[in-house]
Write a structure and sequence with these properties.
The structure is a single chain. The protein is α/β, with parallel strands linked by helices. The protein contains eight helices and seven strands, in the order βααβαβαβαβββααα. It has a seven-stranded mixed beta sheet, with helices on both faces. The chain is globular.
Length: 197
């Protein structure tokens, strides 16, 4: 179970790369844990640290402007590659609550939503405008209105996004699939009672 969705207004981390796969998000050598906590330290590890485990100067997560950001803005086809639930765990553990890209790998998107991490797919021109705005001002804020499926971008631009109704409900209520099933238990039992007659 995740935390229930709360209004999100945050500055962002721009990572303007396409085809960021799950092994780049969290390399396979860190998949020895079955718990969700502690993976944020190794998020984007091969880009973030050198061979001596020193932070790579200039990598966006190592810059002071990224501290406290809750939104990651990437490129196209985010989360491609192997299916691993650790990828959204690592992103969430670092502090991200939403990832914006022009497209996502289906399995990553499903794993993200099941673990409380919202994915927002924006049209490429809108995403390009967002990256340009973040290049001008790293403190620019993004507001995510999940109930109304809107993202408000710097410069007064708003864009609608789609999400399947079940994932939306689970994110807003902080439920996983089992939690959603249990929340519907009274209705299920009432239906079964009518069938038993």
């Amino acid at each position: 179970m995740s935390q229930a969705w709360t209004p999100l207004r945050s500055h962002a981390v721009p990572l303007q790369r396409d085809d960021i796969d799950t092994d780049q998000i969290i390399p396979a050598r860190f998949l020895t844990t079955t718990t969700r906590s502690g993976l944020g330290t190794n998020l984007f590890s091969d880009w973030r640290y050198d061979a001596d485990r020193a932070p790579v100067p200039g990598f966006v997560l190592n810059t002071p402007a990224s501290a406290g950001a809750q939104v990651l803005v990437a490129g196209r086809n985010f989360g491609c590659g192997s299916s691993r639930e650790h990828a959204p765990w690592a992103l969430s553990d670092w502090g991200f609550r939403a990832v914006i890209a022009s497209s996502f790998a289906d399995i990553f998107r499903s794993n993200a939503h099941k673990n409380g991490l919202l994915t927002i797919a924006l049209d490429t021109p809108v995403l390009r405008t967002l990256h340009e705005a973040l290049a001008r001002d790293r403190s620019a804020e993004i507001t995510v209105d999940l109930p109304n499926q809107l993202v408000h971008l710097p410069g007064g631009v708003s864009a609608a996004f789609t999400i399947d109704p079940f994932s939306k409900r689970c994110l807003i209520d902080g439920l996983d699939e089992l939690g959603a099933l249990l929340a519907d238990l009274p209705a299920i039992e009432a239906w079964e009672a009518t069938c038993a007659r």
